[in-house]
């Protein structure tokens, strides 16, 4: 295999691995659900992306046919990561109500801000059971 | 007639391209099936998506895409650095409220998705009247400046893409 391609693949794989590791470490060590969401939505998208680019270089460089599947995986990942993060955040809002603190570790209690217009955030509207405790 | 047969032409084109990439070979059979899906799927789902979004696929859309890709890469380095070096009690996390002038559902969805993918912010909810986004920021020194940056960097560009 072409040494340039080999070096590029190695760099991409190591970089991707490091990003995925850091993202998972963030999931373990950050203080609350909302802060933990930041790890998987960002750090892992680039990590997986780098691994997939490495795969896209590897197959043509080793004489096998090129495949577009990696590109599709990247696109689907970029489309679904924000949506799943949003669903998790909304479920968390439902459970906790207006009292969610953005960072419980800093010792400053803060609740949700009110929207500038409209009655409330969409998650709470129409649900009498939105618990404010 | 064409409008009734192809309620979402851009979606049809996208489905054909994605199907061809999934099959990963150029052949008559695959292309035929791709075209069938490209026509049938938008027709079947058009009830759930009655209005055609007004999108301009031009230089502005391409520029927006490139900016987002660049920001996603930068965001990864920033978040990785924060996770590795910052102590939890020093994180300046806060809620941001981003008032938005975008009105179409598609444009707001793209803005919310972009916010989730880019530096230190995850969009969590939208106000009941659809005029503001609730965003959780991992570490910002100046919330007002961050809101202004998001509005200026993404929203103004999206306004040119979605009329």
From TrEMBL, chain A:
Pfam families: PhaG_MnhG_YufB. Keywords: Membrane, Transmembrane, Transmembrane helix. One of its GO terms (molecular function) is sodium:proton antiporter activity. The keyword Transmembrane helix applies. The chain crosses the membrane at residues 6-28, 71-89. InterPro entries: PhaG_MnhG_YufB. Residues 98-133 are annotated as: Disordered. This is Multicomponent K+:H+ antiporter subunit G.
UniProtKB/TrEMBL annotation, chain B:
The keyword Nucleotide-binding does not apply. Keywords: Cell membrane, Membrane, Transmembrane, Transmembrane helix. It comes from the Bacteria. Pfam families: MNHE. GO terms for molecular function: monoatomic cation transmembrane transporter activity. It is found in: Cell membrane. It is a multi-pass membrane protein. GO terms for cellular component: plasma membrane. The chain crosses the membrane at residues 5-22, 28-49, 61-84. PANTHER family: NA(+)/H(+) ANTIPORTER SUBUNIT E1, NA(+)_H(+) ANTIPORTER SUBUNIT E1. Belongs to the CPA3 antiporters (TC 2.A.63) subunit E family. NCBIfam families: PRK08965.1-2 (NF006518). This is Multicomponent K+:H+ antiporter subunit E. It comes from Brevundimonas halotolerans.
